[in-house]
Amino acid sequence: MQPQIILLKEGTESSQGKSQLISNINACQAIADCVRTTLGPRGSDKLIVNNNGNATISNDGATIMKMLDVVHPAARTLVDIAKSQDAEVGDGTTSVVLLAGELLRQVKPYIEEGVHSQVTIKAYRKATNLCIEKINEIAVTIGKTNEAEYRASLEKCAATAMSSKLIHGQKDFFKKMVVDAVLMLDTLLPLDMIGIKKVPGGGLEDTLLVQGVAFKKTFSYAGFEMQPKSYDNPKIALLNIELELKAERDNAEVRVANVAEYQKIVDAEWGILYDKLDKIHQSGAKIVLSKLPIGDVATQYFSDRDMFCAGRVPEEDLKRTIKACGGSVLTTVGDLKDSTMGTCERFEEKQIGSDRFNFFTGCPHAKTCTVVLRGGAEQFMDETERSLHDAIMIVRRAMKNDAIVAGGGAIEMELSKYLRDVSRTIAGKEQLLIGAYAKALEVIPRQLCDNAGFDSTNILNKLRQKHAQGHKWYGVDIMNEDIADNFHECVWEPSLVKINALTAASEAACLILSVDETVKNPKSGGGDMGGMPAGRGRGRPM
Ligand code: ADP
Ligand code: MG
């Protein structure tokens, strides 16, 4: 009888072996089941309420996953891949989670039967590489030579990204706007150069695209109304200076012998302020923007001299103005000269809904634009913003990397068929595992059918037959409960979205398969498990 050797601290939970692997897989499937119903044009939305009582309605996989606050350590991998897909390509976040979940589900029986996880990982990696090769082989490049055709192809990609969202009814309106917005940017296509502002009220179709910077009018004092509200080619001073009379410190003590001396102190203070204002005026600036407040004296001063001012401008708006109009944020008025001030072709203040907006258009430097979103409920506009983000990302992707494939399950069915063909040429366990991968790929068209209420078995059979006959772009036809050539039907997606989704999903699946022991340390892992008898949770979800 050997004494038990204790390696880990008391209260540490550890579970290992096949059963814990299965439990991790089950947890991942539970996650995939959460987002399953949101896939595709007929997918439903989720309403998530957080502990502050704020409700979010979303169809975006990454958003849902972020809000779910998953605690299971293995299942969190899926949250991470959804996030990475969102950051990398911006769309396909639901698909990636679903694929990872399905890859694991298909391999489960083999794990249960005792196939070593390293064998499955190797087969999955091989299958992923085969798929990527195949996508690159069959992807179609959109030509850049014909301007109108190029634009139309970008619009089709944007429309496909939006067709699964709440705003699918307005996708014809928004696809133009999204493509316009992205085409306005310069070659690097920086995403932060597209600002999105939300103004409640009005219909979705009242949304407008501003070629330049726009932000909401800031808080202003009396005298503001007298200031001019439009300029051509103004000089813009961007400041980080408070233009206000300072209130005396509460407990400061100043001893004065007579009233004249007190007057001197007051005068000095006004002197400082007027000195600053004079310098700004002399610099020739017509528009003064400041991060800090601009008080009533300054507002009045500016309106007397036909200048416009806005204080407390949010930092991000100021940054975008700098990038667009040039100049830099100054902390002293001494540095105001032409090279530190920005300019634009036209400045205007306009009314949008119940808000007033400052528009800076025709900016010389970085190309930038602002989308002013209109719409009813706040949640609705939030979701519209997320949907536009997806579409913008997709258009950027398609511009950077101009190969596209057909969506609606077409590319997945083609890959699935290809893998099945390849697997038949391989002997041994790998054949079965690559077959499992092929089966997992079918989850996308199947789910698209299920979410639309179609008979998925029937449609999948039709699709398999078409693909076997060599019609590689056949996918689900959401409008007619049938199959269709989705390339012809213009359901297009950049091939990079699919490549990234496949790589991320299979990496996540392999990661989970490679874990053979889960150790939970009570100190670092949130605390409340301390003192529980060791060994609990073995093979059970934690
Ligand atoms: P994700 O977060 O993965 O982008 P979506 O809910 O946007 O999830 O659904 C995307 C899926 O819907 C893709 O597989 C895409 O090919 C498919 N899809 C989009 N538009 C259509 C359409 N008009 N007909 C059929 N399938 C479509
Ligand atoms: Mg999408």
Automatic annotation (TrEMBL):
Name the chemical reaction catalysed here: ATP + H2O = ADP + phosphate + H(+)
Q: Which InterPro entries does the annotation name?
A: Chap_CCT_eta (IPR012720), Chaperone_TCP-1 (IPR017998), Chaperonin_TCP-1_CS (IPR002194), Cpn60/GroEL/TCP-1 (IPR002423), GroEL-like_apical_dom_sf (IPR027409), GROEL-like_equatorial_sf (IPR027413), TCP-1-like_intermed_sf (IPR027410), TCP-1_chaperonin (IPR053374)
GO CC entries: chaperonin-containing T-complex
- CDD domains per the record? TCP1_eta (cd03340)
**According to the UniProt entry, which residue ranges have a biased composition of type Gly residues?**
524-536
Question: Which terms are listed as keywords in the entry?
Answer: ATP-binding, Chaperone, Cytoplasm, Nucleotide-binding
Write out the GO MF terms: ATP binding; ATP hydrolysis activity; ATP-dependent protein folding chaperone; unfolded protein binding
Query: Would I find Cell division among this entry's keywords?
Result: no
Q: Where is this region: Disordered?
A: 522-542
Localization annotation: Cytoplasm
Chief localisation class:
cytoplasm
Q: How does it assemble?
A: Heterooligomeric complex that forms two stacked rings.
Q: What family does the entry list?
A: Belongs to the TCP-1 chaperonin family.
PANTHER family named in the record: CHAPERONIN
Mind telling me which NCBIfam families this protein's record contains?
chap_CCT_eta, thermosome_alpha, thermosome_beta
User: Tell me, what does this protein do in biology?
Assistant: Molecular chaperone; assists the folding of proteins upon ATP hydrolysis. Known to play a role, in vitro, in the folding of actin and tubulin.
What this protein is called in its record is: T-complex protein 1 subunit eta
The organism is Artemia franciscana (Brine shrimp)
